[in-house]
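Sample intake sheet
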Amino acid sequence: MCRNIKPLFNFEPPATDVEIRAAALQYVRKISSVNKPSQINEAAFQAAVDAIAGISATLLHNLETSAPSKKS
């Protein structure tokens, strides 16, 4: 399991929904210590990924900076 989540803010082109979801999945895997959840935990795991991806997308769309965009 990877230890680092890739930064997604202030890049050109902007982070895609796929990249945001991948970061959310990595985060949920990290904090739960589970790479692939059991069947009984699958719904809770996916709900967490969905929620974190949505919140992350909102955050990234609402952040502002005067710094120039970085190339991805």
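Comment: The chain is about 55% helix and 5% strand. Residues 13-61 form one domain.
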